[in-house]
Fold this protein.
Amino acid sequence: MSTRPVGSGLPVTLVFVAGLLAVFIGERILGAGTGRTVLSALGVALAVGAAAWRFTRMRSAAADRRAVEGWVLGLYGLGLVALLLYFVQSDAGAALFGGALSQKAPRLAVVLAALFPALLLCTLLPLALVEVAAAAMFRAPVMETGRVRSALYSGLGVAFVVIFAFASMFVATQADATWDLSYFRTAKPGDSTRKVIRGLNEPLQVTLFFPPANEVGEAVAQYFRDLSAESPQLLNVERLDQAVEPSRAKALGVHNNGTVVLSRGDRKEPLAVGLEIDRARGQLQRLDQEVQRRLLAVARPRRVVYFTAGHGERAESRPVPGEMARPSVAQLKELLRAQNVDVRPLGVSEGLGSEVPKDAAVVAVVGPTREFLPEELTALNEYANRGGRLWLALEPDGPDFHQVLEPLGLKYLKTPLANDQVFFRTSRQQSDRGNLGTASFSSHPSVTALSALAGQAPVAFPGAGAMDQIQPLPNGVLHDISVRAHGATFADANGNFTQDAGEMRRTWPLVVAVERPSPAGKETTRVVVMADADGLSDQLLGNLGNAYLAVDTLRWLTGEEALSGTVSTEEDVPIQHTREQDVAWFYATVFLGPALVLAVGFVKTRRRGRRAPRAAVAAGGER
């Protein structure tokens, strides 16, 4: 056996790789015919010939190079095994065994189909690194096998990582499981939306218009897959490509992909989402809200809510000349419209002086500042007596509505409430004590979501007035104090925002739900009385607790409390700092951060300076 160097083995490896490449071109690119047979046979011959050539080199190699040649030969063998597995599960194997392996042993065919590329990867990656490491030393008298071994292990390690990643993806795909670990997420079906689906009594069609393999389409489809589990018989979800099904898209009023249509009979509600994920992020984060809005429009009857006008009530426009500017209720009305509600004004010109319209689902009185005419109060009382639904949001500087409240067992004292322990600080004045906040809710259906969220969604009432129950309650009247003030709240009779003698602390009612039986054949009278109208204004409706209070109040008044619940949203929540926090961040970034950097640099410099003399002494050998 010779011990002379045998030169670089890179040409042999190139022949081996060329053989594999020829097989790939023949099998995957040509796919059929003589060219495939010739290239595949040539590729196999080159690969086998290169392996034989490598074996010869190993036998004639020096002792230090023989180990390297053996490792390379082993990699060649692994590649040949991969080729063998490929041909076994291909049509060549079918011709050899008299039938396709995928039919005779489907599981084995899947295993071989996954195994041969894994073996090829374990061959080619380490082979490339080993050849590079060995080529750098082929002229050296003695080869450093340790470097080559490290290259071999590195290649195998990378190959194993890639194989593990692909295997994990394959298993996740087969399990149909999705983990979204990014900041952006598509909203999931909320509790309220699921209740709407569970309450369906007729089929509802949802048609998704997205092209295949579209990322936005997959996110929307996943949302409706989760939702359809609530009522698989009545919620039909279908995905179409507008380019492939133009006639069906036209029938639903859709002209482009990226649209969702909810339909029942002749009623159709489109929702444009888009096709590009970057542009559709906002829609996907609010998807549950948008879908619920259209679900209610399609699946539920439209109701009419009248807002009284002409008495200084909160409006959705600028105040009339001569009136004090107060926060409007434009967002409240928009929120109600999103619940499939038709919002209309109700004043003397609309008939309030004689009778509340028959189609009124709810009559809302929000923050009046002037007294109602006796005829108007009579119309409201008659409406309530025949099973009507009233929503009264009063203010200390407005009428006390005793003609309407006394038959319901309530009285509005018009005395402002204050709390010197728990309140919202807005102006840093003593008057901030009138900004009440509470998370004390009952289990009444008009506060279902608030009860579920508990302290996560407090409700704010800036400027609430004292309200009390009349004992004993009138016959048949039932009260539920759905929202209570904090126990340290007191009726501030003199308006100095400080508890004085006689101003007792107690959990004052802030929202009271009243039920009273109606004559036979009529619905039960339902009334919600709020001690403050500011809680429904644009100023506070952005607060989660106030928004849920408004929506659940509407649902209870209209008899749809079964739909009450939370809505899912993934919208970004802005980070808001107090003035003290802003000051702290300013000084921390301007002074504290640079000071820490300077301190660390000073310490490092001092330590380096102390070590230098000892090193010089040791080098000089004086000690």
